[in-house]
């Protein structure tokens, strides 16, 4: 039976590999349905939910951006961060598995994993900050709560990887 430190390291490797896979699927989905994802972002940037009945008259509506270019640019930025997070998590996972198999120090795997999780946190914080600017909390509360939950999951994963 493996000792506890080996089991903990194996858990970290599985966690990081699972998050890398999840992040890769997210990238694939956003690339495969780029127009749909950009359209969803455009709804927030245009503040469309606030104009739907019953409309919510707020001075914040002046912030609305009505150009598809902004949603494409925003999605491209999100995709770039997601690709980076996926790559860093993938390298981190491989390095943690290598440490499990060779009984070497996991520092390199932990570093890459932590950087990947940091980029992943940046994705959620970017989405939350952009959403906050465009008043998404008023009509897209579930989206905001989902992003908060994803940020908390990412923080928990970073704590687990670095414990």
Q: What does this protein structure show overall?
A:
- 79% of the residues lie in helices and 0% in strands.
- The protein has 163 residues and is mostly helical.
- The protein has one domain (4-161).
- The longest helix is centred in the middle third of the chain and has 35 residues, at 68-102.
- The radius of gyration is 19 Å and the shape is elongated.
Give a short overview.
The chain has 163 residues and is an all-alpha fold. The protein contains 6 helices and no strands.
The proportion of residues in beta strands is under 5%
Order of helical and strand elements: HHHHHH
The backbone outline, from C-alpha atoms, is: elongated
| Gyration radius from CA atoms, angstroms | 19 Å
Distance between the termini: 22 Å
- Overall mean pLDDT: 96
Count of helical stretches? 6
Query: What's the count of strands?
Result: 0
Number of domains: 1
């Amino acid at each position: 039976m493996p000792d506890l430190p080996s089991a903990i390291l194996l858990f970290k490797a599985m966690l990081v590999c699972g998050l890398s896979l999840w992040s890769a699927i997210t990238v694939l989905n956003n690339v495969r349905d780029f127009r749909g994802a950009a359209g969803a972002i455009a709804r927030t940037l245009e503040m469309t939910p606030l104009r739907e009945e019953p409309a919510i008259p707020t001075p914040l509506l002046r912030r609305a951006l009505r150009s598809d270019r902004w949603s494409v640019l925003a999605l491209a930025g999100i995709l770039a961060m997601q690709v980076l997070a996926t790559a860093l998590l993938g390298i981190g996972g491989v390095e943690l598995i290598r440490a499990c198999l060779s009984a070497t120090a996991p520092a390199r795997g932990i570093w890459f994993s932590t950087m990947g999780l940091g980029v992943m946190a940046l994705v959620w914080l970017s989405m939350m900050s952009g959403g906050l600017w465009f008043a998404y909390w008023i009509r897209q509360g579930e989206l905001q709560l989902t992003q908060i939950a994803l940020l908390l999951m990412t923080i928990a994963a970073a704590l687990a990887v670095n414990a």
